[in-house]
Amino acid sequence: MTPDQSNHPPVQFLWKLPQRDEWGHYLLYSAIAGVFFLCCYYGAWWISQFHDYRVSLPELDGQWLPFHPAWTVAYISIMLAHTLAPFSVASRKACTAWAMSLCYCVTLATLVFVFFPSEQPSIDHLKQSEEFLIDLYWATSALSTSGNAFPSLHVGSMLCTVWYSSRNKPVWFKTVLGIWFLLVVYSTVVLRLHYIVDIGGGAFIAVIAIRLSNKLHL
């Protein structure tokens, strides 16, 4: 390394394609995270159907927020964040850490889903709504499961993705991702898909997952 190179910080990037010989690794770990996530989420729902009880959550929920189905766009934007994550992480090891953090996050949530299932807020009173994008809202809501409300994996997985996507990035980029995360969080409550306590639980398991993944994979 020349003196000129040592005086300059590493070049920052926003998005980049993996090296030609690393595509397999990136795709493999992305697929592992996605499949494992879906298997745990819906598997926990299936197991919880054998229980004859549900945990009651305190209704300090945010039902005072005005419902508007347009927030569904922010809610489902998490899929775009997950898709872009492999192209924003700093390295192959960071991609592995990101993918495994999602696996650790859903594993922790699954333990709660199976043994302490809780329901989402009631949305019966919204069935007569004819607001703009209501069809998209109902389609999205149908993919959610009963018994998997606490903790919110929407919040937990988005926090993991934002964390690894923003490492070694410009401050403005981190700010944009932070705002994106907050919009997703807000959408989970305003769409009546989660209680506020679910958000806290999702953030808590994400912090544990990130710390564990950093320790084992970075």
Topology record:
Layout: H1 3-6, H2 23-48, H3 72-76, H4 78-84, H5 92-115, H6 134-143, H7 153-165, H8 171-190, H9 196-217
Helix pairs in contact: 2-5, 4-7, 5-7, 5-9, 7-8, 7-9
Structural class estimated from helices and strands: mainly alpha
How far apart the termini lie comes to 24 Å
* SSE arrangement, N to C: HHHHHHHHH
Helix segment tally: 9
Low-confidence spans: pLDDT under 50, at least 5 residues?
1-9
Mean pLDDT reading: 88
Helicity level: 55-70%
Describe this structure in words.
The protein has 218 residues and is mostly helical. The protein has one domain (23-51, 63-217). Helices cover 60% and strands 0% of the residues. The two termini are 24 Å apart. Residues 1-9 have low confidence and may be disordered.
Outline of the structure:
The protein is mainly alpha-helical.
Features:
single chain, mainly alpha, 0% strand, disordered N terminus
